[in-house]
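Re-run with default settings, no changes from the original entry. Doing this only to confirm the output is reproducible before filing.
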Amino acid sequence: MFGLSTLGVMRQMSAEEYDEVFWIEGEDLYSLPVRPMKEGIFGKRLEDALQTLIEKHPSVIPGQMIDPGSEDPPRLVLLRREMPISSWPLDHLLVDQRGVLTLVETKLIQNPDARREVIGQIMEYADNAVERWNVSRLQEDAAKYWFDRGKELSNVIEEGLGSGIVAQEL
């Protein structure tokens, strides 16, 4: 199993730390099999699986933790995966209903000292993003990303954020 912090930093936990995992549906309680996340999900290794999870379900990033106490916490939608920043690819570029960008870099952290390195990397990405990106480039890259997947960016944004949000406003 894993825990996700607001910075997108992963902490691996062994299956032994949990007796059981449950799924509650209405009044019914189901016990789910526990297995180490190191084995992966979606038929992929763990880091790739985590990236796929965020790509398919950006709501796993908890908006309420990003803006505690907000009546309208951030709801995130993926603009693009592997977004180029200078010579590096950012794992995920997301946007919320206010047009605020969120940069997500996923890493499996085997030791606590690696967190500094990950935080330094995302700070460097943010700095380079400010210098190199503009709205038209972001819209173009995001539109191409979704076009290559058979979707229109405006439809992806509307599905993820609601009908009052228009891609050109972001």
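Residues 1-12 have pLDDT under 50 and may be disordered. The chain has one domain: 2-169.
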